[in-house]
């Protein structure tokens, strides 16, 4: 039996993402890179902990997108714009791509109804 692992990571470097892809390929495992994207201003407006503000004030060093680089993915399998899609739409886009790639999740991880209230913000 296999396991399906979905990991939400801040992976700012293209080389690290390429390495993850290579490791999966060498093990004959599927790998889908999902680029969850929004303009920096949108991301900052959603920041409940005020980390971007602290980074801009110099209180946090090495903060991705502020004073540390972020290599934009060049060819992700899935590109979701969370400034243009709701949380529900974003989840459904990812779920559809997983299904199309032959990665079928258990029924409890179904696509969401647009009328359901999400329990998180993307």
Automatic annotation (TrEMBL):
- Give a yes or no for keyword RNA-binding in this entry: no
The answer to keyword Transferase applying to this record is yes
Enumerate the spans annotated as APS kinase domain: 1-81
Q: Which GO terms describe its cellular component?
A: cytoplasm
Q: Which CDD domains match?
A: APSK
UniProt keywords (A-Z) are: Transferase
Pfam families of this UniProt entry?
Answer: APS_kinase
The protein's GO terms of the molecular function aspect are: adenylylsulfate kinase activity; ATP binding; sulfate adenylyltransferase (ATP) activity
Spell out the InterPro entries in the cross-references. APS_kinase_dom (IPR059117), P-loop_NTPase (IPR027417), Sulf_AdTrans/APS_kinase (IPR050512)
One GO BP: sulfate assimilation, phosphoadenylyl sulfate reduction by phosphoadenylyl-sulfate reductase (thioredoxin)
Among Gene3D superfamilies, the record links this protein to: P-loop containing nucleotide triphosphate hydrolases
- Protein's name in the database: APS kinase domain-containing protein
> Per the UniProt entry, what species is this protein from, by scientific name?
Spumella elongata
